[in-house]
């Protein structure tokens, strides 16, 4: 019996490897960093490690896709609950957050299948998706200061 040809048609397929010593992007000085692991222009999917100092607060936002969070170390206050090291959280498309706070120095893996929309009590204040994350990572690599609030500002 002849084995079906399993070779990929797309010769551009390759693993994506981000080394442990890849730099972190400091997006809130002294408080918050991210390391972009994957950004998928074909789907809007992105994966990042986040590192937050105790007391850092992420602003209110809405997920425009589903997302997965796995806490590697520390503790996060998310809506009415607390995620500890080893906890996993699945958030369906459309989930609203108030402030999200690091109750301890925290590192977590975040897998998001689309953008995040930021808001205050009256207006939309920003948008964060794979393109903004790539721009932030590239800017940081050239030594530019990076700010999440500037990266996501809508105007």
Describe the structure.
The structure is a single chain. The protein is mainly beta and 155 residues long. The protein contains 2 helices and 14 strands; from the N terminus they run ββββββββββββββαα. The mean pLDDT is 89.
How many domains? The number is 1
User: What is the number of E strands?
Assistant: 14
* Name of the CATH superfamily: Jelly Rolls
Percent of residues in helices: 10-25%
Distance between the termini: 62 Å
What would CATH call the class? Answer: Mainly Beta
Just name the CATH architecture: Sandwich
How much of the sequence is in beta strands?
Answer: 35-45%
Q: Which regions contain 5 or more consecutive residues with pLDDT less than 50?
A: none
Q: Structural class, from helix and strand content?
A: mainly beta
Order of helices and strands: EEEEEEEEEEEEEEHH
Question: Biggest sheet, open or closed, and with what strands and sense?
Answer: 6 strands, antiparallel
The third-level CATH topology is: Jelly Rolls
**Shape verdict:** globular
Radius of gyration: 17 Å
Mean pLDDT: 89
Outline:
The chain has two helices and 14 strands. It has 155 residues and is mainly beta. The chain has a single domain, classed as Sandwich (Jelly Rolls), CATH 2.60.120.
Set out the fold topology:
Elements: E1 25-28, E2 32-39, E3 46-52, E4 57-58, E5 61-63, E6 67-73, E7 75-78, E8 81-84, E9 88-91, E10 96-97, E11 100-102, E12 106-112, E13 116-119, E14 124-128, H1 130-141, H2 148-152
Antiparallel strand pairs: 1-2, 2-3, 3-12, 4-11, 5-10, 5-13, 6-9, 6-12, 7-8, 7-11, 13-14
